[in-house]
Amino acid sequence: MSNESYRLWETTPAAQFAEAHLLGNGRLGAAVFGTAPDESIVINEDTLWSGSESSHVNKNARMLLPEAKRLIFEHKFVEANRLVNERMLGIWMQSYQPLGTLYVSTHAGGHPGSEYLRRAGGISRDSYRRTLDLDTAIETIEYREDGRWFRREYFVSAPAQVLAVRFSVDSGVMNCCLAMNSLLRHTVSVAGETLLVAGRAPDHVEPSFSSAQPSVVYLPDDVSKSIRFAAVVRVVETDGVVTAGVDRLSVDGARSIVFLLAAHTNYSGYLGARDTDTAAVAAKCRNTIAAAGASSWEKIREQHVDEHGKRFRRVGIEIGPAVPEGRSTSERMALQADTEDPSFAALALQYTRYLIIAGSRPGTQAANLQGIWNHLVQPAWSSNYTTNINVQMNYWGAEVLNLSECHGPMLDLVAESAESGRKTAADWYGLDGWVVHHNIDLWRSTWPSAGFACWAWWPMAAGWLCRHLWQHFEYGGDMKYLAEFAYPLMEDAARFLLSSLVEDEEGYLSTAPSTSPENSFFPDEGGQSPNDVTTSVSKSSTMDLSIIRELFENCGRAAELLGVRSDFHDRLDRAIKRLYPFKVGGSGQLQEWCFEFRESNPGMGHVSHMYGLYPGNLFTPRRNPELYEACRKSMLRRYTHGAFGGGWPASWAISLFARLKEQEICGLIAKGIYKGLGTNFMTTGSLQMDCVFGLGAGIAEMLIQSHDGRIELLPALPPSWSEGRVSGLVAVGGFEVSIRWEAGRLVEGDVRSLRGGVCRLSAHGLRGIRRGEKQINVRSSEDGTFEFTTEPGVVYKLDMER
Length: 802
Fold this sequence. Notes:
Number of helices: 17
Distance between the termini: 24 Å
Strand content: 15-25%
Radius of gyration: 27 Å
Largest sheet: 9 strands, antiparallel
Number of strands: 36
Strand order of the largest sheet: 1-6-7-8-9-18-15-12-11
Oligomer: single chain
């Protein structure tokens, strides 16, 4: 596929936030609506959150834990659920905030005045086009008005740390007005050719679904520790005349206008001291603008394209047959369910990679529920880090999609959450190690949130987050990273989980209270009527057991590699043998809970008991075929009950069914996933980005898998993806893979070893491995796996049957 195909484009402006095109450099985000002649650009900065550092303890929780365990072991699950709900939970976390909206009015004559509020027509719809080029990370808008051709370009530069915009017209001149406001407390001022917006975030924001009032709280300035922010807009190149108004900039008589926007906050790192003087933040913005403005538009653009391209162009993908030319993104999305358009999956994979680059860079905050793009003070689910799948899903594709360094903000989030989580472990449980529940915010709040036990009481997030630490090592193989960064965090998480295990009434080591996010069941056990009430609390959910087993095993592997094995690891091994067992139900399905409870929602999108299938690797046909097949039956049951119709559940299902080699189902879900998504792939209701992040990972999982001790090529290729090629995907062990297939069969490929070592490879029709033109010695096994030793930087070609 040519770079021309890596584009999102529309013939109309965005009518809602889920249709705006998204730009970013990991820290600074811009959502471009493309309205004309009057533009709106929503601006975000990744550290602009409500609240400030805090610590919360519900002293009842630790005191009541023994009582909750007793009720559970007596199978009084409803009573245990009530106890947790009413007396053992915490308070809400804080919310990600919008910085402001930049308004730009462009018109042919007259004086701007308040024109930026105008929403006039006058544009020929057959000439309008807005395009986001994923290869260059540049948004372009073109339209004809009054016989003249207008063109705009937008990008958010990582080298310059600014939003850069250029408006131009092919003949005559235009007038332009720039203004900006914010939904947060702020002031606007203008000096010379510079517009300044400065303000502060709320001290508290209630979730959008909370009825508590006031929903947005501001303390007096002199006592508030909330985040201060500023944004500066400056016209840096124009052939027109710039005029400063009271609260806006005007440019008259211009053929071309270039303006830059810089935005910062006073956030200085987790637990770092902050200066609450907004003037200091404004000065930082001015310095950023001054440095960027010293270069020409052409130079800033060139540096941006080059820097972005070095990451984006690592992977190329083409899946055919190709779609006919001339269909916009929205048209293709609308036709997906009924039309074969496999090339759209290639675009989706590259868009996932684009968003990872745009939303997560080394040194920035991790991508939250909406990436870094949000226009509401009370966004859905507070636009925070939901750790019972959503933030993890944002990063499932980082390693395999050849963006390992973009995984870094997630790893930093884990380390900072561990620091906070040690206090939560001590205060809430009286245990060593660290714990995280289902939500984190900028302030690394790790306690159970308010709400209900089905989501809030879930002390397993640290274990899941540690999977990212281990995965990063599996792909990169950096022993120093493992020894100094990842392993200490893994060991401390394991210490908490080991200490939290208790012997249950059956003699097993169990977790209690235990939930399976965010599901509930009819408690048939204990004589309680299944028709009256549901509950979420029991013991030893399958997800708990999977996360604990995986973390304990990975700690053992890491200790062996580092030569630090101790009595602690012997204790982990003994605990693994005593863990409550995984169970297969009467229909052959993997049970979600300790007993075969009746599900309250058979079509539940959370399939938490499938964690060991994906993203974990506990349930594989080589390691545990019985449980692997039980996973298949569980997934097919949920599928028939409509669990995977769209959103992030559909994305998760693609990877799960890919692990099960269910090629046709993978293809069907991938085709139907776009229902309910806007043209920027956000869900139109909750505006979550996890769906597209998970989609890209799922598409990669259909093409290459490397979780089970070998690299499998085309393990779950949908029948309609009859031809294609992909280059640059990365496998566990540090192998960069490129392949091509025809009529659904692999016809050629190669593997580049990034760091040497043994490569184990499996593909239908593979008969040997060549280095250059020379066949090399390989060891083959009964299951068709070829094993060979590699050298760093060397490319090994696949010898395929003809």
